[in-house]
Design goal:
By secondary structure, the protein is of the alpha/beta class. It has a single domain (2-217), classed as TIM Barrel (Alpha-Beta Barrel), CATH 3.20.20.70. Helix content is 40%, strand content 16%. It has an eight-stranded parallel β-barrel with strand order 1-2-3-4-5-6-7-8, surrounded by seven helices. Helix 2 (24-37) packs across helix 3 (47-56) and helix 4 packs parallel to helix 5 (109-118). It starts with a helix and ends with a helix. Bound molecules: N-acetylmannosamine-6-phosphate (LRY). Residues 12, 14, 64, 76, 147-148, 151, 180-183, 201-205 line the site of N-acetylmannosamine-6-phosphate. The site of N-acetylmannosamine-6-phosphate has 16 residues, from strand 8 and helix 9. Converts N-acetylmannosamine-6-phosphate (ManNAc-6-P) to N-acetylglucosamine-6-phosphate (GlcNAc-6-P). It holds the Pfam family NanE.
Length: 221
């Protein structure tokens, strides 16, 4: 999968229960549209969505499950349970929160990475700081992403992608750095590749019409 997404765009097609497009059928169509538009991979949430996407589209998939637990702030593929569910979908890569926070039930990130690798699936680290990116490589992740930059209370809040982290991570880490999060305009995508990102994931700006509409409306004086 990494060869396929190198230098290319991955489209994240996600609509949670509270969102207007919440539907596996629609996420499948989103994936088909993304492929038609030139995407090289899909990031998707939940077993049903991934199965539908795989049924209608032959692009490789980064799978996640978002689930909330009372004893942790981690919600992207937090525990072994979500990893096991994702392993039933044939997704090529599993992304999980690799932030420096306590996981539910005191589970260890090392055990989740081992479980993913034992099943010949790639593991992607969703990070929020440069330190977490460095640690993720040491833990054995196959690639590192900036998905959670600005989404943990201790990470730098930036409007748009955090180019500085991508640039620094590239100098310090050997595994591929994937830019993800807050890429809202094509110029921002161009710039993350310019600073050296291996690949990039764009979500809401392509697959969340409520977000796109809001962006247009915000330009009305
Ligand atoms: C922080 C978090 O939960 N991010 C999620 C991770 O899977 C998704 O909701 C985002 O849409 C995805 O990361 C792509 O980012 P953007 O939609 O900004 O292009």
């Amino acid at each position: 999968m990494l060869d396929k997404i190198k230098g290319n765009l991955v489209v994240s097609a996600q609509a949670l229960e509270a969102e207007p497009l919440h539907s596996s059928f629609i996420m499948g169509r989103m994936a088909v549209a993304a492929k038609q538009g030139g995407a090289a991979g899909i990031r998707a949430q939940g077993v049903e969505d991934i199965i539908e996407i795989k049924r209608v589209c032959d692009l490789p998939v980064i799978g996640i499950i978002k689930r909330n637990y009372k004893d942790s702030d981690i919600y992207i593929t937090p525990t072994k349970k979500e990893v096991e569910e994702l392993l039933t979908t044939n997704c090529e890569m599993i992304a999980l929160d690799a932030t420096d926070r306590i996981r539910p039930n005191g589970e260890r990130i090392e055990d989740l990475i081992s479980l993913i690798h034992e099943n010949n699936v790639l593991a992607m680290a969703d990070c929020s700081t440069l330190e977490e990116c460095i640690k993720a490589e040491q833990l054995g992740f196959d690639c590192v992403s900036t998905t959670l930059c600005g989404y943990t209370p201790y990470s730098e809040q930036v409007d748009g992608p955090n180019y500085a982290i991508i640039e620094q991570a590239i100098k310090l880490i050997k595994v591929p750095i994937i830019a993800e999060g807050k890429i809202h305009y094509p110029e921002q995508l161009e710039r993350v590749f310019k600073v050296g990102a291996f690949s990039a994931v764009v979500g809401g700006a392509i697959t969340r019409p409520q977000e796109i509409t809001e962006r247009f409306v915000s330009f009305i004086k």
